Amino acid sequence: MAPPLPAGRTALTMHSVDNIAFVASQTPEAQEALERLKQRYPHVPPATADVIVALGGDGFMLETLHATINRRPAIYGMNRGTVGFLMNAYREDGLIERLRDASPVRLHPLRMRATTANGATVEALAINEVALLRQSRQAAKLRISVDGKVRLEEMICDGVLVCSSAGSTAYNASAHGPILPIGANVMAVTPISAFRPRRWRGAVLPDTAEVVIEVNETDKRPVSVAADFTEVRDVVRVEVKERRRISLTLLFDPEHNLEERILNEQFSP
């Protein structure tokens, strides 16, 4: 068990804000912001940083999390992209104070283990979702099991995805899946354009569950799977389980924390 924190200290202040690194996407807006912030604040290389300030959009935030997953520094995003759901507002003033006051959110990625038609096995981590999609004009036929028990013998569909709570507002929301509160210790299984069973809308599972998706008629109905940036084609079986041993830390301004954003998404028209 971890020792108690000293009086007056939060979990965040255990992260030093003395060693800050800046990284940016390749857009002109992000690159210009990168140069201005580097001129204004002391910084270190990303490989030695305690906190990384990521400048870009949500896609770049995912890239940064994946690139640092072995070291796992705290990541503070500032929006120089489009949507910026995982990013804080961009402001150059008072950055050190913002980092010190930021609220941490812990995320655990999903581990995907995919087996292909030729017997190869590919493992990857997904922070948002693991999504299976048909590769051809033919609909996919999938069997879904949870913790070793078949729960759906056959689903005819374009695909299915398993998402984390942090990823529930991304592709999952577009597929009309549930938006999951951070800290609820659940994940979602959401069909993509299901034809049969037509009324199945998916499931919310405890984050301890293991989901296994098997592909029927693989020769006639090939299926690919994507775990964030890792894509595998011609899969016959995909296993998904949360990797609790890996903990990623995102930092948010208190007035724009991730829990509040997810709650707002549930009530947005």
Describe this structure in words.
- The chain is an alpha+beta fold and 269 residues long.
- The protein has two domains: 117 residues, Rossmann fold, CATH 3.40.50.10330; 133 residues, Tumour Suppressor Smad4, CATH 2.60.200.
- The protein has five helices and 17 strands.
- Strands 6-5-16-13-8-9 form a six-stranded antiparallel β-sheet, with no helix packed on it. It has a six-stranded antiparallel β-sheet with strand order 12-11-10-7-14-15, with no helix packed on it.
- β5 and β6 form a beta hairpin.
Number of DSSP helical runs? 5
The biggest beta sheet, please?
Answer: 6 strands, antiparallel
CATH class of the largest domain: Mainly Beta
Strand coverage percent:
35-45%
pLDDT < 50 stretches = 1-14
Shape: elongated
**CATH architectural designation of the largest domain:** Sandwich
Structural class: alpha+beta
Query: How do the SSEs run, as a string of H and E?
Result: EHEHEHEEEEEEEHEEEEEEEH
Summarize the structure.
With 269 residues, this protein is of the alpha+beta class. The protein contains five helices and 17 strands.
Features:
269 residues; alpha+beta; Rossmann fold; Tumour Suppressor Smad4; 2 domains; six-stranded antiparallel beta sheet; 5 helices; 17 strands; 16% helix; 38% strand; elongated; disordered N terminus; NADP; metal ion binding; kinase
Furnish the topology, listing elements before pairings.
Blueprint: E1 20-24, H1 28-40, E2 51-56, H2 58-67, E3 74-79, H3 95-101, E4 103-107, E5 110-116, E6 121-126, E7 129-134, E8 140-146, E9 149-157, E10 159-163, H4 171-174, E11 186-192, E12 203-206, E13 210-216, E14 223-227, E15 230-232, E16 235-242, E17 248-252, H5 258-267
Active site: 58
Subcellular location: Cytoplasm
Keywords: ATP-binding, Cytoplasm, Kinase, NAD, NADP, Nucleotide-binding, Transferase
